[in-house]
UniProtKB/TrEMBL annotation:
The protein's name in its UniProt record: DNA-processing protein DprA
Protein species of origin: Nocardia lasii
Protein family according to the UniProt entry: Belongs to the DprA/Smf family.
Gene3D superfamilies, A to Z: 3.40.50.450
Domain Smf/DprA SLOG, chain residue ranges per copy: 86-307
One matching Pfam family: DNA_processg_A
Gene expressing this chain: dprA
Length: 389
């Protein structure tokens, strides 16, 4: 950190913090070109370039509307008055390892893939600590009593076992998951698509206040920013980023929960879905994701912990490890996709490995002959280091 950006001895916000907050207000959401500029020249110089309009063409449009609005000091006063704080990449609370996944995504494919500039937060939980073991629970806003019960039961058990429940504070499944975590004294994080001073939906002002008392309400949007449609899609990437996996309980065919699952898959997080009654319109999205291999079928908290829990390295004998180490191409990709707990169907392995279904079906028998894979009535699995549920 340069001398000009050092923290003042009297504890006043330093130049870097003001620069982060200024830029957060200017772009209001993910902005890949600005993130690239900050990585190249630093946040203080990037803020100067925006103010003085000395920018590459890709940044002139996104910054034109608000570059002359410098309310950084006022924004910091506002969030402090609300009992909150701003978390920047300079802070220990910044969940750096969580953000690594976003940092690796192709921003040409999705503009929203950029790492957030800052996160505005209300609540006593440390974001780093809260996201160490976390599951995102999302689903339909127009949920059924069945969905509310299932979401509440699973979230209650996960929270009771020390897992943080991450969701978006929406009607339906989101609210059920948050309330279940609060009911057992567990940790929960609400990620908003607006400023943390703007309860959204408005009917959840008490719920969000309760979350802010013991958990955490976060957003990448500065105080005062209202919710807009496109901001919910960007918000979904943060819900997926902060969890070790994404669980969907009830979703229509065009549910926003499927967008969160898309982000989870791109980030390498497991996506899971709870099945519903076969004729239920509320669960048709879950059934489609399960059928198409976009999400794994789960029915209880234990299933979720098996998929999203800490990696338990298998114990393999030297001969098996040597055979696996010599795999190349499609065989190596498919072997890497095989689970050591449970089983996966060829279609699921195709989705996991990125290979076509015909290739997967052709390679599996050769892995079985090499005693590296086995199959049962539920699908295929890795035989080396296999552990029981």
């Amino acid at each position: 950190m340069s001398a000009s950006c050092a923290v003042d001895l009297d504890g006043e916000p330093d130049e870097r913090r003001l620069a982060w907050v200024y830029l957060s207000r200017v772009v209001q959401g993910p902005c890949a070109p600005l993130s690239a500029l900050i990585a190249s020249v630093g946040v203080c110089e990037a803020a100067r370039a925006v103010r003085e309009h000395e920018l590459p063409a890709a940044l002139r449009g996104p910054t034109a509307m608000r570059r002359e609005i410098d309310s950084a000091a006022a924004d910091l006063e506002t969030i402090t008055r609300l009992g909150g704080r701003v978390i920047t990449p300079d802070d220990e609370e910044w969940p750096s390892w969580r953000m690594l996944g976003l940092d690796q995504l192709d921003i040409e494919r999705d503009r929203e893939a950029a790492v957030p500039l800052v996160l505005w937060a209300r609540g006593p939980l440390s974001l780093t600590t809260a996201s160490e073991r976390a599951v995102a629970v999302v689903g339909s806003r127009c949920s059924s009593s069945y969905g509310m019960q299932v979401a509440g039961d699973i979230a209650c058990e996960l929270a009771g076992r020390g897992w943080t429940i991450v969701s978006g504070a929406a009607f339906g499944i989101d609210a059920a998951a948050h309330r279940a975590a609060l009911a057992v004294g567990g940790s929960t994080v609400a990620v908003l698509a607006c400023g943390v001073d703007r309860p959204y939906p408005a009917q959840h002002d008490r719920l969000l206040a309760a979350i802010a008392e013991t958990g955490l309400v976060v957003s990448e949007y500065p105080p005062g920013v209202s919710a807009q449609k496109h901001q919910f899609l960007a918000r979904n990437r943060l819900i997926a980023t902060l969890g070790d996996g994404v669980l969907v309980v009830e979703a229509g065919l065009r549910s926003g929960a499927r967008n969160t699952v898309k982000w989870a898959r791109r980030l390498g997080r497991p996506a899971m879905a709870v099945p519903g009654p076969v004729g239920s319109a509320s669960s048709v999205g879950c059934h489609r994701m399960i059928r198409d291999g976009e999400a794994l079928l789960v029915t209880r908290a234990e299933d979720i912990i098996d998929e999203a829990g800490p990696l338990r390295l298998p114990v393999t004998d030297d001969a098996t490890a040597d055979r696996a180490a010599h795999l190349r191409g499609a065989e190596a990709d498919i072997y890497a996709a095989l689970p050591t707990t449970g089983s996966r169907l060829p279609r699921e392995l195709s989705q996991q490995s990125g290979l076509d279904l015909a290739t997967v079906r052709a390679v599996l028998p050769s892995l079985e002959l090499a005693d590296l894979a086995g199959c049962d009535s539920d699908g295929w699995f890795r035989t080396s280091g296999r552990r029981a549920r």
